[in-house]
Amino acid sequence: MANWLTWKKIAITLALIFIALYPFLHGDTYIMHIFILFFIWAVVASNWNLLMGYAGIFSLGNIGFLAVGGYVSGILTKSFGWSPWLCIFLGGLGSMFLVTLFIGLPALRLSGIYIALLSLIFADTLPTVLTQTRSITGGAMGLHDIPPLFEGITRFQSYYINFALFLVMLTIIYRTIRSSTGLAFVALRDARDLAKALGVSEYKEKLKVFALVSFLTGITGGFYVHYLGDISPTTLAIEPFLLTIAMMEMGGIGRFPGAVLGAVIIVFGNEFLRLAGTLRLALLGALICAIILFFPGGLMQLIDWIDGRIAKFKKNRTSSVENPE
Amino acid sequence: MGADKGLGRWEIKDLINALISGLISGSLYAAMALGLTIIYGVIHVFNFGHGIVAVLGGYFAWLFMTEVGLGLIPSILIALVIMFFFGWLLFKATINPLLKSPNWEFSTIIFLLGLGILLENLTLQAFGPRVKHIPPFFEGSLNLGFVWINWHEISLIAIVIGFVILLNLFLRKTWFGQAMRAVAQDMDGARIVGININQTFGHAFALATAVTGFSGILLATKYYMTPNIGWNWMVKGFVIVVLGGLGSATGAVYAAFIMGLAEAVVTLYAGSLWVWPSWFVMFVIILLLRPQGLLGGRTL
Amino acid sequence: MNGQGDHGPVLTIKDLDSYYAELQILRQLSLDLGEGEVVALFGPNGHGKSTLLKAVAGIHPPKSGTIKYRGREISRLPSEKIVEMGVAYIPEARNLFPEMTVEENLRLGAYNRRARRNLEENLTWVFSLFPRLEERKDQVASTLSGGESRMLAVGRGLMSGASLLLIDEPSIGLSPLMKRVVFEAVGQIKSETDVSILIVEQEVDYPLKLADRVYLLKKGRILFEKPAGEVTKAEIEKAYF
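Output (structure tokens, whole complex):
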């Protein structure tokens, strides 16, 4: 049995090849823009998924991580003229420090609900703080004319840079899941007391993941900001928040690469969502409710089901070959 | 207000006004936090749709008053009844099944978030974005020498006090209420004495929805009402119940007054724009110093 | 077997299998209880005694087998219905309502509709059984001592007007004095009423004196069943190993 070549691996490889070649095959700049948004949001959602689904940290403020990283990078680039690459890195650090300080340390030792509340209020308070600090952050209007990654960058180049970001980030996340930290979380989930007896420090592991995710998301915020050229408090509005939650849900929370699949649907489907006009948010809310009620495992649940059918099919085939009735 | 921002010149009069204002908003917050506490205490679920429920209560009351032309009190009563049944139905249809799934803590929160947005948007479609008011209960004010206070505001405090007493009586003197307390204090014990846990959950949810709707009506008479104002109220409610101690009704009431007063003082000295961040800072401080809140560990 | 009254035995359990996840606790267990009988169930810890009581009470339903209470099949009924029918479970953990007073706890014991009618009567009777509780009736339950909270748990169970009491290790963790008080109360219940009692215990002396019949449960099965007069403490303790 060529077990190595599962249909999933084939599908993923084909998809990646398609994405890599798209600019040459068709190269429509608008569609490339959507792809770039997909790269960025897939990374944000996957990071969030790592935090919520694997580490079990119920954070509701990840958009805040993105915004902090983006704002820091944008402000530094505009005010000091430093290289965007450096500023993106600093943005990631900024996000990591701020978030770990204000959310991680106070709330990680407490039960899950406190993190949910604290991170929600954090993300909610940011717009007010941003509006108040107009001189630094551009207030309600936000920052504009943020320099791109390098002068004269084309859509084509942005596409590949962000595609690379996508691949690198997902690899990091995948490796984290497979690492000792990832195993620690599975152990904590399935056999909590035993894991703790064996010396797994829940708090330390959670802090590690929290710092990592806020750092990575902050960096992604930097790339986001240097691609789009502006950022404002609306990034922290309810809509991106709900969209990202919907991405995770649709894909299947706690499953890799669920969030990526969810991002595919949401980012490309968002175009249709625009048509709904003012009912957009209602539809989003309804979608989120519907998924959690009827399809809680998301797309990964569907894929598992397909896998199950394939396994059954194979079993029936081999058994009928071995035992002809 | 005319006062300078920051440590500007202050007068006793301004301070007293601020404190009175803080007391009033504190009492309104108390009414609102009670709804959250009931649901958390009995069902151990955090109602992330709390804000829109409060707003809906206000809108229903407004609807009956303006479109249907009923008086103030009948409108309020009908709105409360509607909210009660709405809460009951919502619980049976959606939350109850979710509670049985393995990830229920997580699922219920996400579901209620999504539902909150859905309802908020629908309310926006139905009622439009313009600010609505519910008229105050009384006109005119009382002169206490150097400060003025509206009769309406006095009535609000009285209503909230009366309401808290009523709720307390209900919880302690009726079988329904005692069942809720029992489930909140020891679920297994409640099962043993023959209480139907799921049914009690449903009652608690329905009651909390009506209570929250009522608080929304009260808030709408003092402030204004738009579909999205619920979110702010809700977040404040969250901070209050944590400060009071999750699950403790008395704690929530104390915390509500504390935060109401604190908010008024911050508004006086730093300006209303720093109120929101100050709630966040308060929250962080509480979590760092005393996460179980004032009366944490106690229940209904 | 014995215990056949006009309406058949109060409790008939046949071939009960019960699991916790994949682990089988009770294996084809059968047991019965007649009107007004006191039956003691002995056995080592962790072999299924509590699981059996929980199955009857509807708190941890069995995988297969039947449980009949006065002829009615109850193994799939929800716990509140079983309480309504007259079965009271008094767990080892007591599960009292910590912030309610002794009296409030007792009154809640009469939550089911049938018991509400006789609430005041039952309350007076429980206070007569446990005068200590009456002294402390306005005291909050979390401040009671070990023995007092055990008394309250039993008293609360009695408030339900049950005709079948399932008592799980009432004397565990109590001082010798308190143990005597609790078992004397059980003895009073036996002599003053026709309530049937299934009592699970580690401690052998008192229950053996009170019981009409004795079962020994080991590894999820009934090892033997004998009238209390025909078995000695030594025999029972030997069977533990």
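Chain A touches chain B through 41 residues (CB under 8 Å).
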